[in-house]
Amino acid sequence: MTSPHSLLHRLPVALLFLALATLGSTAVRAESGPDGMPGEKTFRIICQSCHLESLDLAAAGPDGDSALAAPPMDWLSTAIRMRQNNDEAEFVGHVVSYLRLPGLERSLLPGDVIARHGVMPPISEYGPDLTYDDLTAVASWIYGHYNYKKLLPQLQKHLQSRQGSSQ
């Protein structure tokens, strides 16, 4: 049996762990989406309703994404990173800004992609409670999730095959 005296000695340690746990959850909350969802979970619940996580461009062929509601996220993120010189801050800033107020003039995608899929509606239509921090968490997760160096040559080859098939 534990004596009351030993419980008193453990109380400061327990309070310290409680304080650290509270600080930790506050830090995570700042990078989370609605109800504490991290960027990946928000992506999977909201973004994936239109965007596939990935599509094998070589297997899909030049028009393989034409039946999709939106471009697959792996090559969409690669195309944006390509236009932003693979700069993370520029990528995240552009994605957050575009999600809040999308438009043809703000898109970084080739015209044929916009013609095929249209311009994305504002994210508020899908996630009205998403905050700036939520969108930043999603954009940061997307930036870190995909292997740009591996995907870039595949995307460039895919875009070239599209140009060749449209001529």
TrEMBL record:
Residues 1-30 form the signal peptide. Residues 34-146 form the Cytochrome c domain. The keyword Metal-binding applies. InterPro entries: Cyt_c-like_dom (IPR009056), Cyt_c-like_dom_sf (IPR036909). It comes from the Bacteria. The keyword Transit peptide does not apply. Keywords: Heme, Iron, Metal-binding, Signal. GO terms for molecular function: electron transfer activity; heme binding; metal ion binding. This is Cytochrome c domain-containing protein.
